[in-house]
């Protein structure tokens, strides 16, 4: 009876510990899932995917660098007015750079794929990001 109770307590504690662990964000897994979704849902041929995906990765890499910079301006608790002003101006500059990168790469995409496929890819990408964000929120706040 004592062994059964010990085993039951061990199982319960392992279950609680497993539920309490947060799944760490894996950028490579995220990118791979996004690319797979794009290839499948946009119905890219192997040749199209072989041309498109390297250019898409190049764009993502450039954007990632800027997103990291943006992240540094998100938390300015108890900063002075100059720090807030610098954050606003810098954030605006970064967002303009991001938009220029998008514009530049969208043109490259249009040189690789028909406009209808590029349009669908952009929608697929937006939907994927929204779904992943929703999953993250529901994991962090399960009662929502």
What layout of secondary structure does this protein have?
Layout: H1 2-20, H2 27-41, H3 46-71, H4 81-112, H5 115-140
Can you describe this structure?
The protein has about 140 residues and is an all-alpha fold. The protein has five helices and no strands. Helix 3 packs antiparallel against helix 4. The longest helix has about 30 residues. The protein is globular, with a radius of gyration of 22 Å. About 5% of the residues are buried. The N terminus is likely disordered.
Summarize this entry quickly.
Helices cover 82% and strands 0% of the residues. The chain has 144 residues and is an all-alpha fold.
Residues in helix, %: over 70%
Number of helices: 5
- Average pLDDT: 84
What class do helices, strands and sheet pairing give? mainly alpha
Order of SSEs? HHHHH
What is the beta-strand fraction? under 5%
Question: Which features does this protein show?
Answer:
single chain, 144 residues, mainly alpha, 5 helices, 82% helix, globular, disordered N terminus
